[in-house]
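Our preliminary data section would be incomplete without showing what the modeling component actually yields. Below, a chain of 373 amino acids is followed by its predicted structure, encoded as tokens that our downstream tools consume directly.
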Amino acid sequence: MPNLTFVLPHWLYWSGLVIFPLLAMFLVRKQRAVAPPAEAMLSIAYLLLLTCGFVGIHRLYLRSKLGFAYVPLLVAILFGNARGREARNFVSDMRNEAAGADFLLERAQKAVEKGTEGAAAKLADAQQALTTAQEAMATAVVQFDQWGNFSAAFGVAILAFMLIDAFLLPRLTRRAAALDREQGATHADTVLEEVAESYRPGYDEEKPRPAISRHIDRLNGWVGHFIAFWAVIAVYVYYYEVLARYVFNSPTNWAHESMFLMFGMQYLLAGAFTFREDAHVRVDVLYEYFSERAKIITDLITSVFFFIFTITLLGTGWIFFSDSFAVLEVSFTEWAIQYWPVKATIFIGALLIILQGISKLATDITALKRQGA
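Predicted structure:
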């Protein structure tokens, strides 16, 4: 199988973190406006073909059992690649042995020229060792090429099946959609309704709150939904990493680093949205037994400690970001991604959570006044 040498450019990484969520949010909003029935869709079928068609997922999505035919082909590729890695290691070992034997042969030839006693015997041994190593290396190269051709043949077979399916997908999708319509196509809708019914967000849009709170809540709601789509990016990146590593024997030097940095930024920026949803972990052994008024008063008193912590985080985050930006800091890895945008999210995340704290404070004061009235 050929090697993959693609390295994710830095500009594509940072632009992808911005463009992909915006595009996904637009498509989701458009999909909700159309609200089609839960039946097989051609766009999803082609997406599955492009991303994981080599395992036949697109066929299984369209309820075609022929999707299982891809599995033994993939297993054969993985087997061939595993043996190919062993053969490549053997080639490397034999190449080292040949280099060592060539070095000994050169020394033995110099010893013969100097007339050193026993040099002729050492020269013969060195020549024999070099010949043996070269023959072993040639055999190892042949084995490596054979296993590479073995995996490539099954790879070509999978590619051929995928190309055939690319033309068959419209017909297969129509058949699956017709089957969904016959069965009512209600299962997916039922699952979504059950999930929505089981989810109880802490944020109540109908709850009375001042204008500043509504604006801040809307901002952090948008940020929360924006960065939620970063998790979808991780699916594609780790999919590429697994494919490159186990199918093409070409592990990347950027997939893991790009994703743990992305999830770190997501964690920092999601704090305000989580606060809005009242989803942060807290100890409420006594708090849950308080009256509504007592809860509000308790929140107002403890907000002092909240702002002390978050303002400290804001100042520290700004120091980290400014120091990093001043030297245009990059990671110490081979990929050398910029670190200052990552550290900027410490400051931005702290700012957002402070704003959400202000929203909570204003809402509590308004609620306390209403109760007092």
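Confidence is low (pLDDT under 50) at residues 195-199. The chain has two domains: 41-190, 211-372. Preliminary results of this kind motivate Aim 1 of the renewal.
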